[in-house]
Amino acid sequence: MLIKPTKEELKKLSEKLFFEFDDKKIDKIIEQIEVFISCLSKFDAVPTADILPTDYPFIKKDIVLRDDEVAENENNTQQILAGTVGTNESNYVVLKK
Length: 97
What we know:
The chain is mainly alpha-helical. Helices cover 39% and strands 6% of the residues. Strands 1-2 form a two-stranded antiparallel ribbon.
């Protein structure tokens, strides 16, 4: 059950936030809060007694991973890197300019 704020609570809150609302504006805000609360109260009618809480709303059973080919051959790795990097005589990787 949501509690509707009072006019005095809204005035104190607005002062803390450095807002200045007149009584007419506060009445309008209270009216909007009441509409919002009435919309939220419709959720109370949804039967949830037999539903377990979840951290994700959808169960995804069909997870298909792509088939990647892993290059385990050092020569293949050297071929891939040949166009982008080189090595010097001390076997340090040197970027080509």
